[in-house]
Write a structure and sequence with these properties.
Elements: H1 17-27, H2 51-61, E1 66-67, H3 70-74, H4 82-90, E2 99-101, H5 106-118, E3 121-126, E4 145-150, E5 157-161, E6 166-170, H6 175-183, E7 187-188, H7 201-207, H8 214-217, H9 220-223, E8 224-231, E9 234-238, H10 251-254, E10 263-270, E11 272-273, E12 277-285, H11 288-300, E13 307-311, H12 313-323, E14 331-339, H13 341-357, E15 361-362, H14 365-374, H15 378-387, E16 390-400, H16 401-419, E17 427-436, E18 439-449, H17 454-471, H18 490-509, H19 523-526
Helix pairs in contact: 2-5, 4-17, 11-13, 16-17
The protein binds flavin-adenine dinucleotide.
């Protein structure tokens, strides 16, 4: 993965002249793009890993799996949010981890976290590094040194239990390889987030990820049946039966724990037979309200297809411009069905009846085919836009059906107000990305003139949008997780007592506070209690 951009550098995109001109005309983009320094210009601080800790860690993994060179440290500077990329483009590497350690087994991970606890060395579990919320930021928070614990060598399919329909996967396995290993046996995981090519099994579990086909296959957390976790206090093996009444479900403590409690090393997930048939359809609705009403009807009747999303009018137009095609009328919805041919036909017909009853019109097959071709390529466009002087970023939330329209209105208005300047007007658009019987998730994208201070402008807009989401009763995140960036809203999300509960669990499992400091749990709650 490129150190200062999304994905594979070979797939980098550039805007066409007509697209660039459209941005100048619609957004008032000034010609200057934010700077982009060469990697060789980065200045890293000297590594600060104390020698006794280095020697002990090396004894576990071997010299070649503890790297302190610039190349390795630069690839672990943080995640892939727009502010992350802007910082790297500016050449900011002052926070680089002191070392990158790549363990090869659960036992090695267990030994490493124990050594780090003993030497007060902070540990950032690093999967694919695709966090967009500061989840893999090397934040020391008072610790003298920090390692990035890159799980890439834990990349095996440990066991496929065909009788039970489950697979045990090592945490560092990326999704394309997981799909390849499972596909060879006729199975699929069915998890297809936009970060599919780079994100890992452990990262998905640690962030409660949701993918494009989660309507059909379920969110990642819903697929997990068992977990193996290395914590500074020892190993936990959780999930011995498909269901249990043996008290609160401790697996839930680790799903979404974002590396703050321990390192997930193995994840057992429910797998499905690879579908024999897939049918994609594109629909148009006269308004976003009509499209969301249709999806709500499907969710509440138990008729959700494998994937479904509805773009608002602006997103429908913008996506057509990017694809170089004519925009359909109104709001575009993409629907996908997977399964046995009979089921695809039967469900497809039932869904079609509901969508038609909600004023939906079926579009040409090519519209859906274009969505499938481009569904992982959007992030490359972000780099091309940044190169052109456009600040672009996304945020997401979820709420009840009753609160959805008001939440969309307030977030759109807040982002627009905070990104507008005297000479430029931002574009803010949104789609309904996931649906449940009781509500749905809204995914917003902004495009605005980058101006002089794109990072601080985005920070202010994001702060205001987060406050608006909290005030409107939405969740601060539906699937991007909390990390550093959403931490200020955790108390609004779970209440002060909820934060205390999380902090108490952390103190039990990680008394030295070395596991991914500065993430998820608000700072005040992680401080030791004052002595009276
Ligand atoms: C372009 C783009 C598109 C995206 N699209 C989606 C999307 O469609 N759906 C979605 O849900 N998310 C999406 N994301 C966000 C991101 O991909 C997810 O949060 C993903 O689950 C992170 O996986 P990862 O392996 O990259 O984890 P990382 O980014 O490496 O880590 C994420 C967090 O999990 C922790 N962690 C990682 N591995 C472990 C482990 N084994 N044990 C304990 N903690 C661990 C890290 O410390 C960190 O806190 C997108 C991100 C980008 C940049």
């Amino acid at each position: 993965m490129a150190w200062n951009a999304w994905g594979d550098p070979a797939h980098a995109r550039q805007l066409e002249d007509s697209q660039r001109q459209l941005l100048v005309d619609t957004l008032g983009v000034s010609a200057a793009a934010p700077p982009r320094v060469e990697r060789s210009a980065l200045r890293l601080p000297p590594g600060a890993l104390p020698e006794p800790a280095r020697a002990a860690l090396t004894a576990v993994v071997g010299e070649e799996h503890l790297r302190t060179d610039d190349a390795a440290r630069i690839l672990h500077l943080g995640g892939k949010s727009t502010p992350d990329l802007l910082r790297r483009r500016e050449g900011d590497a002052h926070h680089a981890p002191d070392a990158v350690v790549t363990p090869g087994s659960h036992e090695q991970v267990q030994a490493l976290v124990e050594i780090c606890a003993e030497h007060a060395v902070a540990v950032v579990p690093f999967g694919g590094g695709t966090s967009v919320v500061g989840g893999v930021e090397p934040a020391r928070e008072g610790h003298p040194a920090l390692i990035s614990l890159d799980l890439r060598r834990l990349d095996a399919l440990v066991e496929l239990d065909e009788e039970s329909g489950t697979a045990t996967l090592q945490a560092g396995l990326r999704t394309p390889e997981a799909e390849e290993l499972l596909g060879a046996e006729g199975y699929t995981l069915g998890h297809f987030p936009q970060s599919f090519e780079f994100a890992t099994i452990g990262g998905y579990a640690a962030t409660r990820s949701a993918g494009q086909s989660s309507a059909g296959y379920g969110r990642f957390d819903a697929m997990v049946t068992a977990l193996k976790v290395a914590t500074p206090r020892g190993t936990l093996d959780l999930g011995r039966a498909p269901a249990t009444a043996a008290g609160p479900d401790l697996r839930q403590l680790f799903l979404g724990s974002e590396g703050t409690l321990g390192v997930l090393t193995e994840v057992t997930v429910r797998v499905r037979r690879a579908p024999a048939e897939r049918r994609d359809e594109a629909w148009s609705f006269p308004s976003f309200a009509a499209g969301t009403a249709a999806v709500r009807a499907l969710a509440q009747r138990g008729l959700l297809p494998t994937a479904i999303r509805v773009s608002d009018e602006t997103e429908t137009f913008v996506n057509a411009v990017i694809a170089g095609s004519a925009a359909p009328e109104g709001c575009l919805s993409v629907v996908s069905h997977e399964g046995d041919p009979d089921e695809v036909a039967r469900r497809g017909e039932a869904v079609r009846q509901v969508l038609t009853a909600h004023e939906g019109s079926l579009l040409d097959d090519e519209v859906a085919a274009a969505w499938r071709r481009s569904r992982f390529s959007g992030p490359y466009m972000r780099d091309a836009l940044l190169d052109t002087g456009v600040l672009t970023e996304t945020l997401e939330t979820a709420t009840s059906w009753a609160g959805l329209a008001a939440l969309r209105e307030t977030v759109t208005a807040t982002l627009t107000a905070h990104l507008r300047t005297a000479t430029s007007t931002p574009v803010v658009f949104c789609h309904l990305s996931h649906a449940y019987p009781s509500g749905g998730s809204l995914y917003f994208t902004v495009a605005a003139d980058a101006g002089e201070e794109p990072r601080s402008r985005w920070r202010a807009a994001k702060q205001a949008a987060g406050d608006a989401i909290a005030a409107a009763g939405g969740s601060i995140t539906h699937h991007h997780a909390v990390g550093q960036d959403h931490r200020p809203w955790m108390e609004a999300e779970v209440g002060p007592l909820g934060v205390e509960v999380l902090a108490a669990v952390k103190r039990t499992l990680d008394p030295a506070g070395i596991m991914n400091p500065g993430k998820l749990i608000p700072e005040a709650a992680t401080q030791p209690p004052a002595v009276s």
